[in-house]
Design goal:
Blueprint (H helix, E strand, L loop, with lengths): L1 H19 L6 E6 L5 E9 L3 E6 L5 E5 L5 H10 L9 H4 L2 H29 L4 H32 L1
Antiparallel strand pairs: 1-2, 2-3, 3-4
């Protein structure tokens, strides 16, 4: 009786895992080639005959033909993207990782802008010339950081399109 209940528990957890597989994109996994080579990757997207991934070792974005993967790796790719059937729209083609990266850049810009506003208040409240110079340098550094992030944002958008 205990073994029967244990078997039902195992089957139920397997079904639950299968139904929820691919819900949290992107996924970190190991893909194996048919000749035995394997690598740690982050799956990004799948088209009809190719899978796009980011190699964990150096962050390089690569594509590979699905037919060149081992059976287990093919199963991972198909299960992970099972709802897409290889037909991605324009929005789905964009990397989810890229979207999170862009969101992070924008949040950091907003945080720096808030810090810049506070630095302006501190500059107005400075009691000595040394404090004023320190705050002016801090404001210049914050403005430079904001401009750098805006350039990163524009470069990311340019590479994405």
């Amino acid at each position: 009786m205990k073994s029967f209940l244990f078997l039902i528990l195992i089957l139920a957890s397997g079904v639950c895992c299968y139904q929820n597989y691919g819900q949290n994109q992107p996924v970190h996994t190991t893909l194996s080639h048919m000749d035995g080579r394997s690598m740690e990757v982050m799956l990004l997207s799948r088209e009809q005959t190719q899978v796009t991934f980011k190699r964990q070792s150096d962050g390089l974005r690569l594509s590979c033909g699905i037919r060149d993967l081992s059976i287990w790796s093919k199963c991972k790719v198909y299960w992970y993207f099972r709802g897409s059937n290889g037909k991605f729209g324009d929005q789905a083609k964009r990397s989810i990782v890229g979207d999170f990266h862009l969101q992070g850049i924008r949040e950091e810009i907003q945080n720096l802008i808030e810090d810049l506003d506070m630095a302006d208040f501190r500059l107005n409240a400075a009691g000595s010339i040394a404090e004023e110079l320190t705050m002016e340098n801090a404001i210049a550094a914050l403005e430079l950081s904001i401009e750098k992030l805006k350039l990163k944002e524009a470069e990311h958008i340019r590479h994405r399109n």
